Amino acid sequence: MKLFKHACIVGAACLSTIASGQNYTTPFNHCLLPEAYYDQLVGESSGDRAFNYIMDIAPYERDRQHADYQGHFMESEYVVAQLKRFGIANATIEEVGKTKTWDGVSASLWEVSPKQVKIADYQDLAAILGQGSKSADVTAQLAWIGRGEAHELAAVDLKGKIAVTEAAASRVHDKAVAAGALGVISFYGPRPLIDPLQIPNSGIRSENPTFCFNLTPRDGYALRDRLLKGEKITVHAKVETIEEDTDLEVPTCVIPGTDPNAEEVIFTAHLFEGYVKLGANDNISGAAALIEVARTLNELFESGRLPRPKRSLRFLWVPEFQGSIPWATQHKEILNRTLCGINLDMVGLWLSKSGSYYCLHRTTMGNPHYLNDVAESFYHYMGATNKSFVATGVGRPEALKPVYSLTGSQDPFYYAINAHYGASDHEVLNDWGVQVPAVIMITWPDNYYHTSGDRPSICDPTQLHRAIVLAAATAYTIAAADEQVALAIASEVSAGSTKRLSLKAAEDLSALAQAAANQLPAAYKKAHFDQDALLLNEQATLESVLELAPNSTVLKAHIATLQSLINEKAQSNSKEIDAAMKARATLLGITAPKRVELTAEEKAAAKVFPHATAKVKETGYGVLRNIPKELIAKYQLINGGSARLSLAHSDDIAKLTTSGKLSILDIKKMQDAQFPDADSLTDITRFIDMLKEAGLVE
To answer: Is residue 310's pLDDT more than 60?
Structure first.
């Protein structure tokens, strides 16, 4: 014990000595930008300012007034006013269409017997009124229906009463109303053990809507217990709602590059998620961070502290999907010269308090692009330089390059690099008809997601600061990329490619090691197919770098060399798969297959190379949704009740036809490698036949 204690003291002293040195850097990290440029981005940007923008726009979930629908929304005017104050003169509000939206005017719920007690009021908290509710003025007795299951409804006389449920109102409303209920009171909470005061931002969708009040679980449980004891409770519910007409507004600006004819990099963040919900993290945080990205970059360019990039940077604050879709439809000429996109959605969460990570979701194989590796590189750099560490020969008790905010946390940077996730505006850019590779940066999990608990207090100025730096650094690296930077990006992609090929091989080798005798041929085939799929994707990703310096013979030669080396890595992995298969077969006492055997269907699919036609981009966003109904009915693969392909899968299958370099078998391999529930080769082939018949591929 004394010896161990002495060793610990010596070890601590060594670490202290090492840490006192000033020339040590975090191991295994590098910065794609010159350090001086990165430092300027960190120093100029501010998470505190972004937090203040959140406080200005959504300090609480307020009732939106009728007047707000008549002109421009407060949020739109705020964004443009800030941008103009920062010197971005071209900031403006685009109107890309019109829409109708439900809005609550007033709502109150009072117990009138046996007590005189106010239960809920819309002016206290807007989330208490379920969206979609209709105007009502009724006095009625409450009836407990539990979770609204069939046997629970059958046991209660609901005629002329208001149903009380612990289930989501949207799930039980129609059944309760069909049984005679006048309306619904729900105290469903998505996370009642984490926060018993959360009310979900939810409502009712019905052809015959009544009204719904949402209570906190805390108040709902108390009401439930009284009803279960047999107490007769009568309430007065008064609701006034309206349907508003409004414009779809997109605040936007451009920070011009030095070459007006060059490509663009685009940022998106949804400023509106509907017009009633006002979430601090979802997504006023993304909108606020994007304001600060624009301010930071514009200030650095104007002051000369950061060289203005060749390519322009475009910023969009949109109504989620409602605004990004028509904007994309109306601006095809802009999107045709856009290299890539970055979407900021829910970026401000205090990570350590929520057990969360700042996630980068990459594009699918249908949109292979160097953007993924550029963004991932900065994530790794931020992670490595915002924590203390100890490693062989190096030790530091403090962060090497801390990105903190004055009023924020001093947490390490918790992050994750994930596969594609599409439920936000970057999916509009990634669409087959748009073809702009885009990633999303997002905090997840979020314990306050889509609830009344999504307030500024859950946000962390330090996390906002890091989100701003990551988005700005990624976009600036690409916008400013010349031949030299393109070479560095190509090497970054190559390094990532090697890692991804090896990780997939390790996954498949593990499956081989556990395969039973009858499973071995399939596991062996999948392992080889996965290497084929990743190799195709990584080769295409490397090729995408050529767009940064298309006339550079040096870059072309370098990429060709890297592609050859990646091919060698895939071949090496394949040899390891062969060796593992033989070893496993020997242990099982069976004869090892000599090679991967293709079925007749696979051989046929390997000979067909579908190529997207010009009609795809001419149609633009939502091209798959515009396939004639008679073809949808004929093939019964998408957009129907008996559809066999999900929209996400079908869109990616379609995107894999864009280059014309992939066979149908290649497409199947790539789907299998990236989706655990991939579709059958038969369905993929029939889907491509449908696209051919629709004139979208040849």
So the answer is: yes
Could you give the CA distance from residue 159 to residue 180 in angstroms, rounded to a whole number?
4
- Quick one: which of 558, 395, 593, 396 has its CA closest to 488? 558
**Could you read off the pLDDT of 620-655 as tens digits, one per residue?**
999 999 999 999 999 988 876 556 887 778 999 999
For 653-662, what is each residue's pLDDT tens digit?
999 999 999 9
Residue with tokens 């790539």: 670
Residue partners of 290: CB distance under 8 A and separation at least 6? 267, 269, 315, 317, 344, 471
Distance between CA atoms of residues 619 and 604, nearest Å = 30
Cα–Cα distance list, 512 to 338, 400, 527, 568, 677 (Å): 43, 42, 8, 22, 19
- CA-to-CA dists, residue 30 to 35, 377, 395, angstroms: 10, 8, 17
Task: Judge whether residue 286 has pLDDT over 90.
Answer: yes
Q: Note the pLDDT tens digit of each residue in 410-458.
A: 999 999 999 999 999 999 999 999 999 999 999 999 999 999 999 999 9
SS3 per residue for 573-633: HHHHHHHHHHHHHHHHCCCCCCCCCCCHHHHHHCCCCCCECCHHHHHCCCHHHHCCHHHHH
- Helix/strand/coil (H, E, C) string of 387-433? CCEEECCEEECCCCCCCCCCCCCCCCCCEEEECCCCCCCHHHHHCCC
Inter-residue contact 200 to 162 (CB < 8 Å): no
Whole-number Å distance between alpha carbons of 189 and 204: 15
Whole-number Å distance between alpha carbons of 530 and 514 = 18
Q: How many residues does the chain have?
A: 698
Task: Report the half-sphere exposure of 238 (CA within 13 A, side-chain side).
Answer: 9
What does the block give as tokens for 685?
Answer: 């082939």
Which phi and psi angles does 142 have, rounded to 5°?
Answer: -85, 150
Contact 291, 53 (CB under 8 A): yes
Sort strands 338-344 and 438-444 into parallel, antiparallel or unpaired. parallel
| 167 or 13, higher pLDDT | 167
Residue with tokens 């669409």: 431
What CA–CA distance (Å, rounded) separates 501 from 536?
Answer: 11
Output the average pLDDT for the chain: 93
Q: Measured between alpha carbons, how far is 465 from 469 in angstroms, rounded to an integer? A: 6
pTM over 0.85: yes
pLDDT at position 19 over 80: no
